[in-house]
Design a protein that fits this description.
mainly alpha
């Protein structure tokens, strides 16, 4: 018996080698938060390299026309699936554990934040991919997973946000802003701002119903009014740039966007082409000049730079020719230390403007629209001041002159159009809000006509002349689910929703259909 006891003890001691006192297996609930906030801001940037080509924010000039510039995809690749990976893996069980611990400890503020993150994840994932796995997600007993409808995902997002709103209003239990602030690198433990963010995300969700009979613009406006009250509420992720992983993904050091260039479409929205010859002062602070100081955009249908003279070819987004700019000041969102947005006040004001316009309340729509344009000018200045970037600040005089132009801000509510609202929202979201921007364009079917003007809601947007072969002549509507998790391991689940079809990425989204 003594020998058996010794053997038993020895076996236990051997197994204890897996208990690392420097990496405890049971951690404080708040320690899960910071990495998830990082990816909440960064994952959309990774996918934005591809979504941004569907929406013609930028293009990747090369020796051939790329798959994404032709509204296609890269087969057998995880390109365009970073949000999928982070929602199901980086968040995944970590978010479940954080929320379970927070609930057990009555940390209602942290639990509310967790539900906001959960809702944001489902929103971003379903808006990129359509049908997604919700009910069976993070079930460790399963090896294959059934997809849920986009309608169900939207309902679950609303439930989570409403729960978060209730929780973030509580001050009882173990609610503690100091505890939350230790890892809350976005709002420093301010649950009031998290509450506003939850309302803002709800407004975004509800605004997507614009093609549905259940669309309620009054509910959209009410949610916006309960959300951000100024740019001081913007959800921003800071990047101190002390090493690669805490440096802005768009910064020159990370080298993830160095060869990309702006398109003719976005330049046309800002150089006066689309709006009565009025040059937007943000253009020279957001977009990249050519070496000769002019602002040019690339034609997505032309290989490389086409016939554009070398001195007129747009610089990279950091403001330098070729691949220059390393260890130099960047511009706008393209700097190593810039604060990267998740949701902004300006963005939400355009959401309100669209809802009010659709409700027939043109006066409210015009006021919100003007707020949106004004706030985004301030946002551009703030981001260009995050790290003393090279771009100059937009002066008060420039701002006042721009806002006083009837071509930009109509003199009366009757002059406001959907083209005004959605084009200016595009500009305000350019370079960061890739999922929302693409959802907007799909809600307007890319080329819908503004009934007030008989012109496109997005003036100057033209789909690629040569679409990717698998499209079958159809415009892209969704990104295919992540290859390595779904097409390798979950083909039965994909087959049930038609996901194995070559043209699955052209299947319309439920939220964009009547």
């Amino acid at each position: 018996p003594l020998v058996l006891l010794a053997a038993s003890a020895s076996c236990k001691d051997f197994l204890d080698v897996n208990d690392n006192p420097n990496a405890p297996q049971d951690v404080s609930a708040n320690l899960y938060l910071a990495p998830m906030l990082h990816w909440m801001a960064t994952a959309p940037q990774l996918d934005g390299r591809y979504v941004g080509r569907y929406t013609q924010q930028w293009t990747l000039p090369g020796t051939v026309l790329s798959t994404w510039d032709r509204m296609g995809y890269d087969p057998s690749s995880d390109n365009g699936a970073q949000i999928w990976r982070d929602v199901y893996w980086t968040f995944g069980q970590n978010l479940v554990d954080m929320m379970d611990k927070a609930e057990a400890e009555e940390r209602w503020d942290l639990l509310g934040v967790g539900k906001v993150l959960k809702a944001w994840g489902w929103q971003a994932t379903t808006d990129l991919h359509g049908e997604i796995i919700v009910k069976e997600a993070i079930d460790q007993s399963k090896f294959s997973f059934n997809y849920d409808t986009q309608e169900y995902a939207y309902q679950e997002i609303q439930r989570l946000l409403n729960d978060a709103i209730t929780l973030l209003a509580r001050s009882d239990g173990a609610v503690d802003p100091t505890y939350l602030a230790r890892t809350d690198k976005m709002y420093n433990g301010d649950r009031g701002k998290w509450l506003k963010l939850a309302q803002g995300l709800l407004a975004l969700n509800l605004s997507h119903y614009s093609n549905k009979g259940t669309y309620k613009p009054a509910d959209v406006m009410a949610a916006v009014d309960r959300s951000f009250t100024s740019g001081a509420d913007d959800a921003l992720q800071s990047f101190p740039a002390t090493n690669n992983n805490d440096t802005n993904f768009w910064g020159r050091t990370r080298n993830n966007l160095t060869t990309y260039r702006q398109t003719q479409f976005v330049v046309g929205l800002m150089d006066g082409t689309a709006f009565g010859g009025i040059v937007d002062p943000r253009m020279s602070r957001m977009l990249a000049p050519a070496p000769n100081g002019s602002y040019r955009g690339l034609d997505i249908n032309v290989v490389g730079f086409g016939a554009i003279p070398v001195d007129q070819r747009p610089n990279n987004f950091f403001g330098y020719a070729g691949t220059g700019g390393l260890q130099q000041p960047g511009r706008y969102l393209f700097d190593d230390k810039v604060k990267t947005p998740v949701v902004t006040y300006a963005q939400l004001q355009f959401v309100k403007a669209e809802a009010a316009f659709r409700a027939g309340d043109r006066a409210t729509a015009l006021a919100a629209y003007r707020n949106g344009v004004s706030a985004h000018i301030d946002f551009v200045n703030a981001r260009n001041n995050d790290n003393a970037q090279a771009a100059t600040q937009i002066t008060s005089a420039e701002k006042a002159s721009f806002l006083a132009s009837p071509a930009i801000v109509p003199a009366s509510p009757a002059g406001l159009t959907l083209t005004h609202i959605m084009s200016q929202k595009y500009i305000a979201q350019w370079g960061w809000a890739h999922v929302e921007l693409w959802t907007d364009m799909r809600r307007y079917h890319y080329t819908d006509i503004d009934p007030a003007t008989s012109l496109q809601v997005y003036p100057g947007f033209v789909p690629p002349a040569t679409l990717y072969p698998d499209n079958g002549g159809k415009i892209v509507q969704r990104i295919r689910p992540r290859f390595n998790s779904e097409y390798v391991w979950n083909r039965a689940g994909l087959d049930a929703i038609g996901g194995l079809a070559l043209d699955y990425h052209t299947k319309p989204m439920w939220i964009t259909e009547p």
